[in-house]
């Protein structure tokens, strides 16, 4: 498989916000309201960008998510503010079977996302993820 050069990659990124394969996509922007409770960045998610998902905060269909239920029940923005589990991997709601499968399949390190939120804050995390154009920190 041939690797894209810088100019070709830049051209692909310019298509975001315009018509791409017949669907309009949103631009990736830094917005702390688009940080999911588990630390993922919805603002760079394809489903969110294609307007197929409102993001974790407003996704009423995500009642299956134990992390979302826990955070909304405690009225906290993310697991980064939880004092019960300094290491989110010790929390059975955060580190459940579905989360582990998601992490394996997508090489996602949500724990690193929570650590980053603790280090640079929610706004800093959103800015960094938007700048890198990524939904998660990879393992």
Residue-averaged pLDDT, rounded?
86
Number of strands: 2
Number of domains: 1
Largest beta-sheet characterization: 2 strands, antiparallel
Structural class label: mainly alpha
Q: Percentage of helical residues?
A: 25-40%
Determine the strand fraction and express it as a percent band.
under 5%
Radius of gyration: 16 Å
Number of helices: 5
Oligomer state of the chains in this structure: single chain
> Which spans of ≥5 residues are poorly predicted at pLDDT below 50?
1-19
Distance between the termini: 23 Å
Which descriptor suits the 3D outline?
globular
Q: Strands of the largest sheet, in order across it?
A: 1-2
What letter string, H or E per element, gives the SSE order?
Answer: HEEHHHH
